[in-house]
Amino acid sequence: MTRRLKLTIAYDGTEYSGWQRQPNKRTLQETIEDAFSDYTGEAVPVVASGRTDAGVHALGQVASCDFPWNHSAAVVQRAVNFRLPLDVRILCVEDVSSDFHAISSATKKRYRYQIEDVEIGDIFQRKYVWHIPKALDVDAMVESAHYLVGRHDFASFQAAGAPRMTSVRTIYKLDIIRRETSPRLLLEVTADGFLYNMVRIICGSLVDVGKGKEPPRWIDHALAAKDRAAAGPTAPSLGLFLMQVWYE
Fold it and tell me: Which among 12, 34, 38, 53 is annotated as catalytic?
């Protein structure tokens, strides 16, 4: 008899082609499922709260699986981590009810995007930040970000390739945080869900405002257009982290 487990996972996405299993590519789903299979001798499908793209990292990804043995959660965590590469760690294993599902049970998520907006960036952060060699206008970015908070149709901030039934989402919080040390600038966004590349397009658009390419109010017009061409560029994947997932 199987039991449902909730996994909290951290990973460095640099060497992976995203979460979802793909033929002839190294993916996080395959890596974690292979570790479970090596441990149990059985196939253990693992479903994540969201399919992060190639190069995207996580400090709080959540996944669920049905586990065939009665080993304690702590034993499962140690056994799977022993079989995983060092750029993937299971932070927590919890027993949950059989109706828990990593995707459908989630109520909101928080992502962080990291920027290093100095001429000479920290070389040890280079895999985890978008390097922009000139300071951004944070005040303008904060003003612009206010237009995105709330319930809106974010069609302008959705990349092609993964259409959803609706592009309406609610952003509960969008913070832009200036720091004295690397990474110098953090964008943190919490929402009830995200469209394909939504955080990266929001970040790229806000960076255009921070560079002075567009005025703060421009992002409101981009939102109203409901057209991907109206928004800014897609920020690189390397600066994006899935930080936290909330559940009912």
Answer: 53
107-247: CATH architecture: 2-Layer Sandwich (3.30)
Distant-in-sequence contacts of 202-205, Cβ < 8 A, 24+ apart? 202/148, 202/157, 202/174, 203/113, 203/115, 203/130, 203/235, 203/239, 203/240, 204/231, 204/232, 204/233, 204/234, 204/235, 205/144, 205/157, 205/231, 205/232, 205/233
Compute the distance between CA of residue 142 and CA of residue 243 in angstroms, rounded to an integer.
Answer: 21
Is position 53 annotated as part of the catalytic site? yes
pLDDT tens per residue across span 162-200: 667 899 999 999 999 999 999 999 999 999 999 999 999
- Considering the segment(s) 3-95 as one domain, its CATH architecture is 2-Layer Sandwich (3.30)
E runs forming strands in 68-167: 88-95, 106-116, 130-131, 150-153
Q: Is this structure's pTM higher than 0.90?
A: yes
* pLDDT tens, residue by residue, 144-159: 999 999 999 999 999 9
Cα dist from 163 to 65, 87, 155, whole Å: 26, 31, 10
Residues of the chain short of pLDDT 70, as ranges, are 162-163
